[in-house]
Amino acid sequence: MSEQTQPAPVAKKYVPRPEGINLEFHLPAVATGMLHIQRCSACGTWRHPPRWYCPSCHSPDYSFEPVSGRGTLYSLAINHFTVDRAWIEEVPFVTAVVELEEGPRVVGSLRGVPVDQVDIGLAVVVTPEARGDEFAFLWVDPVR
Questions:
Q1: pTM (two decimals)
Q2: Strand order in the sheet with 36-40
Q3: What is the CATH number of domain 20-142?
Q4: Three-class SS of residue 27?
């Protein structure tokens, strides 16, 4: 009798469930495929992460507006280890902090650049990818 082997279960990547103002950040990206950043309706200040009150004028009025996603690589961390089994195939990967042309900084995962060739100041574009109905993963790609 031959012994049947079962394939190893495939680990699924965790998808967060944002709430409140963080959910407001993700929903426009999921709906449109474009990055939206919070902007004060009173003074026009862009801000991220989202906040209830403007740090410049303290207004509670805001909207989430589409942005180009273009910016520069401000900071990074090269991840050589993961405790989440779903990310094992991705190691090593780069967690990137991008300073957008509009001013705020966002965090995403860099792709398309070997980890040994990543440089601060690299011109990049941030693109959201819907993961379900309420969360958008942010990819960071080099501008070619």
A1: 0.87
A2: 46-47, 36-40, 62-66
A3: 2.40.50.840
A4: helix
